[in-house]
Amino acid sequence: MGNDFVNSTGILATAMSLPPEEIIFGRTEAMRQIRQKLSSVKDSDVPVLVRGESGAGKEVIVKLMHSTSIRRLGPFVKVHCPAIPGSLLESELFGYEEGAFTGADFAKPGRVEAAHGGTLLLDEIAELDAASQAKLLQVLQDGQVFRIGAREGQRVEVRTICATHRPLEEDIQSGRFRRDLFYRISVITLHLPSLRERREDIPALVEYFLRFYSLKYSRPMQPLSAQGLQVLARSEWPGNIRELENLMNRYVILGSEKAVIDELLGGQADRWQAGESEGAFVSLRQITRHAARAAERKVIVQALDANQGNRKKTAHLLKISYRSLLYKIKDAGIPRKGTFASSPVANAGDSIMKLRGLGYEPPTQ
């Protein structure tokens, strides 16, 4: 990508809205391996499955794949599967012929056809219904799209990339996702690490977002203090890079470091400032742990209670992957086995709403 995607300010990118590669990939070994994989597949149309928690940067990676691929001059079409009602998803993806159903007064191509010659991103692929899964498999196998009501297929040349935060293997076992489709879309798989797994990249991300939004709002850039950066570096970031970006956006608008730290620490910025004046780094660790880990532990325990200890159902309720839930359970010291009280599911939902005040936003992507 390099300077082709950055203007003279070093911040604003092309129409694809991509940050510089050093910001996208950072310094971790996991991201270095992803960079190598992307370099290997950029000149092919091999399907790619991008996996990772919500907010970890899956769409940015997909856009980068498109902009450096042999189809970069073609269209980039994104379909966020959960945003389209199930009854409309098949027609939106594959189109329909005139008279195919009541209200089909004219023929309409679907989004797969719209991506002809370019890249199709199917975001949250696990949300596809059975009929759409079968038709997508046909597209990947034969390179043809059959509109609803059509007798003949439309030839398409599309690079298909899918993304998900869910464990598709579990959906295969439960019968919700086709095994043959899974193998078709995951010829190459990229596992994006969470932000807490690449903490050394936080200072560079903070600087990038501060410069970006300072330029966007025509405001002078105000760097965070060293102590403020330490709070950010030690936070858990359940919303990953998206959560960090939103926090820096608010910081540029509000112009108050205390306000955003107060939001991140759940109203304990005064204690943080007291610790700052004393250089009390131990106090900072305690505050961050209390505001992030303790709060998150509480909602996980309540969600486990609501599901009688069933971890798969708990992960679904919290809208995180099963693997992420296991990591959080271990990190929070929650017993692996035990008797879970019967609690209404609403309690867990109420706790999630309360955690939004502590900077916790359950993933929706």
Identify the notable features of this structure and list them briefly.
2 domains, 7 strands, 8% strand, Rossmann fold, alpha/beta, 365 residues, disordered N terminus, 5-stranded parallel β-sheet
Give your account of this protein's structure:
50% of the residues lie in helices and 8% in strands. The protein is of the alpha/beta class. The protein has two domains: 2-193, Rossmann fold, CATH 3.40.50.300; 199-358, no CATH class. A five-stranded parallel β-sheet has the order 2-3-6-1-7. Strands 4-5 form a two-stranded antiparallel ribbon. Strand 4 (144-145) and strand 5 form a beta hairpin. Helix 13 packs antiparallel against helix 14. Mean pLDDT is 81; it is low at 1-15, 274-286, 338-349 and 353-365.
Short description:
It is built from 17 helices and 7 strands. By secondary structure, it is of the alpha/beta class. A 5-stranded parallel β-sheet has the order 2-3-6-1-7. It has a two-stranded antiparallel ribbon with strand order 4-5.
Total DSSP E strands:
7
What's the domain count? 2
Largest sheet: number of strands, sense, barrel closure: 5 strands, parallel
Spatial shape: globular
Quick check: average pLDDT? 81
Write the layout of secondary structure elements.
Blueprint: H1 21-25, H2 29-41, E1 48-51, H3 58-67, E2 76-80, H4 86-94, H5 111-114, E3 119-123, H6 130-142, E4 144-145, E5 154-155, E6 159-164, H7 168-174, H8 179-185, E7 188-191, H9 202-216, H10 226-234, H11 240-254, H12 257-264, H13 269-278, H14 281-306, H15 311-318, H16 322-332, H17 345-355
Parallel strand pairs: 1-6, 1-7, 2-3, 3-6
Antiparallel strand pairs: 4-5
Helix pairs in contact: 6-8, 9-11, 10-14, 11-12, 12-13, 13-14, 14-15, 14-16, 14-17, 15-16
